[in-house]
Amino acid sequence: MDATQWDERYRASAGGVWATQPPAVVREIATPLAPTTAIDIATGDGRTALWLAERGWSCTGLDFSGAGLALAAARPGGDAVRWVQGDVHDWAPESPVDLVVSCYLHLPDAAAVVARIAQWVAPGGTLLVVGHDVENIAAGGHGPSDPAILYTPDLLRGALDDRFRIERCERVTRTSADAELRGGHAHPAIDTVLHAVRVR
């Protein structure tokens, strides 16, 4: 889907497309971190960026959908986040940050995009990527059905160079209690999670 299609989807939604909380694995990994600076990539209607801001992070939410960003900015706490409309291929922060999060950004050049956003992580900072795994298709979980844009642990692991120490790169199964969509979904979903720390 391009930006225009996402704009239409957000405008047609009643209060937002996504669940109000970030994925459980994002909360698990980010909660122990000392809040400093963060970028939430493909922020959509803002759930992860708002959650980070509530916990003291100075957060930028990036998305190419102006309609999604408008929903995000209108939510309680929306004025605590810097919302930026831009494309992950072209936009870049003025300086590296301590946490870069990307949830469910699926593009044909996924490995190159992950390598690009990894450059935005400051030394000592954290990169956290979560997305639908290719095995999600057979599992019947919500998400894209094109295997060319889905993740695997090998794909995400291979996107990083030796500046990063990989803490975790694996498949995880989400239940309806950790639904991606507002209103939930019936089937378990299989995601790939990458948690890495930049060591130099």
From TrEMBL:
UniProt xrefs under SUPFAM superfamilies: S-adenosyl-L-methionine-dependent methyltransferases (SSF53335)
Keyword entries, A-Z: Methyltransferase, Transferase
Pfam families linked: Methyltransf_25
Stored Gene3D superfamilies: Vaccinia Virus protein VP39
GO molecular function list: methyltransferase activity
Superkingdom per UniProt: Bacteria
Residue intervals of the Methyltransferase domain: 39-125
Biological process terms in GO annotation: methylation
InterPro entries for the chain: Methyltransf_25, SAM-dependent_MTases_sf
Coiled-coil portions: none
UniProt keyword Ubl conjugation present: no
Residues passing through the membrane, by range: none
UniProt cross-references to PANTHER family, sorted A to Z: TRANS-ACONITATE 2-METHYLTRANSFERASE-RELATED
Descriptive protein name: Methyltransferase domain-containing protein
Organism: Microbacterium phycohabitans
